[in-house]
Structures are given as C-alpha cells and as structure tokens.
Design a protein that fits this description.
alpha/beta; 8 helices; single chain; eight-stranded parallel β-barrel; TIM Barrel; 40% helix; 8 strands; globular
C-alpha cells in the first residue's frame, strides 16, 4: 500500500514496478469492460511476475476477468457487493471523514483520500482537502488510507507524516523510484 501507481498502459506500469510501486492501478475511463481486459492482460501478468498488487479502477467485471487483487470504486459506483463476494481488495474514494466512514461501512479495505492538492489529471475532482483533511480521515478510520491528488516526490513524505499508509500517483508514476524513496524516508518520523 505504500505506493499506488495509477497507469493506462503496460509501459508506464513497467517503469512504476521497476521503481518500487507496491500497487499498480489500471485506470481507463469510459471504455467497455472488454477493452479494459485487453489493455489489462499484460499489466496483470507483469504484476503477478513482480509480486505487485494489481487493482482495476471502476470495473469489477474487468477486475474479476483479469484475476486482479482488487478494485477501486468511487463513492457512487456499483459493484461493491460483488467485489466483496469475490474476495477482492476494495478501495473506495473519500473526500471527507463522513465519506470515509461510510466507505468502511460499505466494505472498503482501504480508502483513497483526496484530492489532497489540485490535480490536472482529474479536472472534475472535488476541492482539495489538504493535509489537515487527510489527517482527519486517517484518524477517523481503521483501514489503510492512501493519499491521492497532486501527490509527487516533493510532497509524498508530508502525506505519510499526516497519517496516510501510502500515496497514489498518476503523473509521478514515471518517477516511482523517487516517490518511493520519499515515502520510505517518512517512516523515520
């Protein structure tokens, strides 16, 4: 859970795995399940070979078809019950302590908290919650919390210091080695 790298292709996944990613999350928006499965096959194989957890974003059916370790769903996404019944790791997004508590009640095994800061990769994201919002979520739930949104090598350590178990990066996936070093350095706090 220390470093989730959110990717759209196998080349980025490979760089992230080589850099120390502990989770690869395949995020492909608005495409059919069969297309997600096609793109995901080599990424799933890479993750299995490298002993890195593999999570599919927003598509429980694709996660099952790919024999993924987990699925990450938004607060309003369907499939939470199916994911739980299949024994998948279930991540749910939260922007507040109330949403995080509700996510745990819905079966979340981890929370994706954020956005922490503004992020160009998700223009429709909620307003940033900042480090104080992250800390509040971390205190409110007993499951691991992964910080997301504007996270990179310059601020990953701050997220861990605020109580997050790990960080999730999109743009910084190519810098996985440096982000992982920053996250691991935060253990010394």
């Amino acid at each position: 859970m220390r470093l989730h790298c959110i990717v759209e292709d196998v080349d980025t996944a490979r760089v992230a795995v080589e850099g120390g990613a502990t989770v690869i999350q395949l995020r492909l928006k608005d495409i059919p399940t069969l297309a997600v499965v096609e793109v995901g096959r080599p990424i799933a194989a890479l993750c299995r070979k490298s002993n890195v957890s593999f999570v599919v974003n927003d598509d429980v059916e694709a996660a099952l078809a790919l024999n993924a370790d987990g699925v990450h769903l938004g607060r309003g996404d369907e499939g939470k019950e199916l994911a739980q019944a299949a024994g998948l790791m279930l991540g749910i997004s939260a922007t507040s302590i109330y949403e995080a508590i509700a996510a745990v009640e819905q079966g979340a095994t981890y929370i994706g908290a954020g956005p922490i800061w503004d992020t160009p990769t998700k223009p429709d994201a909620s307003s940033p919650i900042g480090l104080d919002g992250l800390a509040a979520i971390c205190e409110a739930v007993k499951v691991p919390v992964v910080a997301i949104g504007g996270v990179d090598v310059s601020n990953a350590r701050d997220c861990i210091a605020a109580g997050a178990t790990g960080v999730a990066v999109v743009r910084a996936s190519k810098d996985a080695r440096e982000v992982r070093a920053a996250v691991d350095a935060a253990k010394t706090f």
